[in-house]
Amino acid sequence: MNAAKKIMQRIETLARITDEPGRLTRTFASPAMRRANGLVAKWMRAAGMETRVDAMGNLIGHFEAKSEDGKKPSSILHPSSSPRLLLGSHLDTVRNAGKFDGPLGVMLGIACVGELRRKKTQLPFAIEVVGFADEEGVRYQSAYLGSKVLAGSFDAKELRRKDAAGIALAAAIKIFGGNPEKLKSARLDPKNLLGYLEAHIEQGPVLEGKNLAVGIVTAIAGQTRAHVTFIGHAGHAGTTPMARRQDALCAAAEFILATEKLARKTPGLVATVGQLKAEPGASNVIPGEVKLTLDLRHAKDSIRRSAHLALKKNAFQIAHRRKLKIDGEVVHETAAVACSEKLSGLLALSVRRHQKKVLRLPSGAGHDAAIMAGITPAVMLFIRCKNGISHHPNESAKAEDVRVALGVMSDFILRLAKAHE
Ligand code: HGY
Ligand code: MN
Ligand code: MN
């Protein structure tokens, strides 16, 4: 079976590993994540890699091209100190997710190693394929827990975060078999890293619109994730006159529409209220308290930050006018990150070998590459996805485009090896 077909088959198999029967949901340190790590580790070993799961639950496959006599090339002194190129993406998903967001990058990384081994290619560096433990931030609301540990930018304060069931992050790590005390030492040594290449579906309509299989990411948009709570007064739906209500849900509704209005009139800004919880949550009770999430993205940090300030001010004004109290906190913020010019230039040469046109485009979605760029040059290859759909079960990519991506990535590795000799 050809490599692209095998990747598509594995994507299907992996998509059946879920925490929620009937739909794909695989969140940080969950039983499904454990099963997914086990299966992907098996595929990594079949491709000739040694595998390990680090203190945070990241799955890492290590590959060293051996010379004919089975010895490691001289530059590969020891797994901990050999120069290496990182490939990969995340294995966790959003709720009711698509199959490709994350896993496609990991499967392509494994396939690259499989090709190198099949062709007995000699490389002056090792390759590590990473399946990150938590990029989406669904369970603990703060994204990139896996890549932050490898990049050494994880903040130990996050360990106190609680999930919806009240389980602290530190406890979830331990239950999964990780070690919250060893997160610092799980950091990769930047000295050994040549770079990080992440292949990922575009999650947007641009490549499809230009009829291109792949594209190169210029930069990853910055993001702010915040929680906003409107605190009013619960009351009887039948007896409380409209003029005397402190209805938290009406305040939230006004805020949500104001958020949408600001994003619609600010070029390049996207804003989303993805979660909302109204308490006490009965049809005949005026909602006394509403907690909602706010997700803001923009390629320019200054615009994202001023939008956040404007919305915060607006929320206070709405609360004041309606005689409510308001509370809020920023739970996650990452700056916009430019991809490595040097590695993108090399990747462009590889794309040109497989596609007439080289398109460079920004990413509105966040990616582990944004965090890994903190310790090593990061470069991203986008793969066309159908109607740009993502974070939805209809997310899909074509085997033919996956074949192109595999060719580009394999070519990129050889180019990097040449440049490294
Ligand atoms: O939300 C995002 O941008 C990504 O899918 N984590
Ligand atoms: Mn995603
Ligand atoms: Mn993703």
Task: Lay out the secondary structure.
Elements: H1 3-15, H2 31-46, E1 50-53, E2 59-63, E3 84-90, H3 103-118, E4 126-132, H4 145-151, H5 169-176, E5 193-201, H6 206-210, E6 214-220, E7 222-231, E8 235-236, H7 248-265, E9 270-272, E10 276-279, E11 285-286, E12 289-298, H8 301-321, E13 325-334, E14 337-338, H9 341-352, E15 360-363, H10 368-372, E16 378-383, H11 399-420
Parallel strand pairs: 3-4, 3-5, 5-16, 6-15
Antiparallel strand pairs: 1-2, 2-4, 6-14, 6-16, 7-12, 7-13, 8-11, 9-12, 10-12
The structure holds (2S)-amino(hydroxy)ethanoic acid (HGY) and manganese (II) ion (2 copies).
(2S)-amino(hydroxy)ethanoic acid binds at residues 135-136, 143, 365-366.
Descriptive account of the structure:
The longest helix has 22 residues, at 399-420. The chain contains eleven helices and 16 strands. The model is unreliable at 73-78 (pLDDT under 50). It is of the alpha+beta class and 421 residues long. It has helices at residues 3-15, 31-46, 103-118, 145-151, 169-176, 206-210, 248-265, 301-321, 341-352, 368-372, 399-420, and strands at residues 50-53, 59-63, 84-90, 126-132, 193-201, 214-220, 222-231, 235-236, 270-272, 276-279, 285-286, 289-298, 325-334, 337-338, 360-363, 378-383. It binds (2S)-amino(hydroxy)ethanoic acid (HGY) and manganese (II) ion (2 copies). One manganese (II) ion binds at residues 90, 101-102, 135, 200, 367.
The SSE order reads HHEEEHEHHEHEEEHEEEEHEEHEHEH
CA radius of gyration is: 23 Å
Q: What is the overall shape?
A: globular
Kindly report the average pLDDT value: 95
Q: Which small-molecule species are bound to the chains here?
A: (2S)-amino(hydroxy)ethanoic acid, manganese (II) ion
Helical proportion?
A: 25-40%
